Amino acid sequence: MSRQERADREVAAGITPVGPGRPRCNTTPSGALRFTARACPFPAARGTLLTIRQIPSRGGVLSHTRTPAVAGWFTGEGDGFRLLGTRCSACASVFFPREDVHCRNPHCAGGSLEEIPLSRKGRIWSYTDSRYRPPSPYVSNPELPWEPYALIAAELAAERIVVLGQAAPGVTVAGLTVGMEVEAVPGVLYEDAETAWTVWRWRPTGVTE
Ligand SMILES: [Zn+2]
């Protein structure tokens, strides 16, 4: 099998080739997510050339299949949408992104880690916006003008963690303040021909789409 054939099969299998010119899928548009090199959900990170159109508005295209951009990090739709973390049975530390192997608390001997839905609402701990187009593996169409998006770090009081995420469409830094209440809502990271790849967004409470 030639090198190209092997690479093509890896792409077809959803396995991310790693090497020069083939970036590992370990960062995302928001910079908040990390993935292993296998089963990368971002096709552009697999070294393929795709025609992606930037998400111009709210909610995505309903006719597309809605598939989580990363499995196991959130669940549900609408009011039932929740981020999923894990909690250590020994020290009650909560982890997001989820930790499924061992407790990361250095003072904990380690317990079992169980999946838990995180609080739907939190308060803005910090925020900023992205005014330039990130490099690959960020998925965007370079032929379209860059549209800045806001990033929100939301503190979840019960879990005592801060979760980074993009703001909901239409929300800009001009409308944000530290301490403002936000809620996790479903959103679309990007779309390709068949699929709307879903993710979470932070949206100030009281703001409706
Ligand atoms: Zn622990």
UniProtKB/TrEMBL annotation:
<feature type="domain" description="ChsH2 rubredoxin-like zinc ribbon">
    <location>
        <begin position="82"/>
        <end position="114"/>
    </location>
</feature>
<dbReference type="Pfam" id="PF12172">
    <property type="entry name" value="zf-ChsH2"/>
</dbReference>
<dbReference type="InterPro" id="IPR012340">
    <property type="entry name" value="NA-bd_OB-fold"/>
</dbReference>
<dbReference type="InterPro" id="IPR052513">
    <property type="entry name" value="Thioester_dehydratase-like"/>
</dbReference>
<feature type="compositionally biased region" description="Basic and acidic residues">
    <location>
        <begin position="1"/>
        <end position="11"/>
    </location>
</feature>
<dbReference type="InterPro" id="IPR022002">
    <property type="entry name" value="ChsH2_Znr"/>
</dbReference>
<feature type="region of interest" description="Disordered">
    <location>
        <begin position="1"/>
        <end position="26"/>
    </location>
</feature>
<protein>
    <recommendedName>
        <fullName>ChsH2 rubredoxin-like zinc ribbon domain-containing protein</fullName>
    </recommendedName>
</protein>
